[in-house]
From TrEMBL:
Its EC number is 3.6.1.55. It comes from Granulicella sibirica. This is 8-oxo-dGTP diphosphatase. The keyword Chaperone does not apply. InterPro entries: MutT-like (IPR047127), Nudix_hydrolase (IPR020476), NUDIX_hydrolase-like_dom_sf (IPR015797), NUDIX_hydrolase_CS (IPR020084), NUDIX_hydrolase_dom (IPR000086). One of its GO terms (biological process) is DNA repair.
Length: 131
């Protein structure tokens, strides 16, 4: 899996885009970072650019990989998640698949009910350790 930390300068602090899963999806209404599965033949960066085009309608410039997490969900299999920074993109952000989408400061991230696999990253970001 690949996911993006899409950043913007929010006046006084950096903000990151957070997305909420739909009520009818597994792990419904949990918050996550936009992204998805790497298809056969794709690099991680190619997969992420494709997912961001599909989910948000943007042409993203995929930056540095800042974190990698392996996690076992109780009800499912193990996942391997890689997070990349995105500081630039073309086009206008459009919510195509999420229940909700918001900009959050890094500090405020723990207030969102994130997927379990993301919690270590959320903590690092909110405490200023990663960005
Ligand atoms: N996009 C994304 N997925 C995450 C994050 N954290 C996390 O555990 N995941 C998990 C949830 C899903 O099991 C998987 C994402 O895969 P996906 O988007 O292709 O699949 P999905 O379950 O959301 O939906 P579906 O297409 O399988 O119906 O990775 C995250 O921050 N962003």
């Amino acid at each position: 899996m690949v996911a993006a930390l899409i950043l913007r300068e929010g006046g006084t602090a950096v903000e990151v885009l957070v997305c909420q899963r739909k009520p009818d999806q597994p792990m419904s209404l949990k918050w996550e970072f936009p992204g998805g599965k790497i298809e056969p033949g794709e690099t991680a960066e190619e997969a992420l650019a494709r997912e961001l085009q599909e989910e948000l309608g943007i042409e993203a410039v995929i930056g540095k990989r800042v974190s990698r997490v392996r996690h076992k969900y109780r009800n499912g299999g193990a996942i391997d998640l890689q997070f990349f920074v995105v500081k630039e993109f073309g086009g206008a952000l459009e919510n195509r698949i999420f229940n909700d989408m918001r900009w959050s400061t890094l500090e405020a991230l723990p207030q969102f009910d994130f997927l379990a696999a993301d919690l270590g990253l959320i903590r690092d970001l909110s405490e200023g350790r990663l960005l």
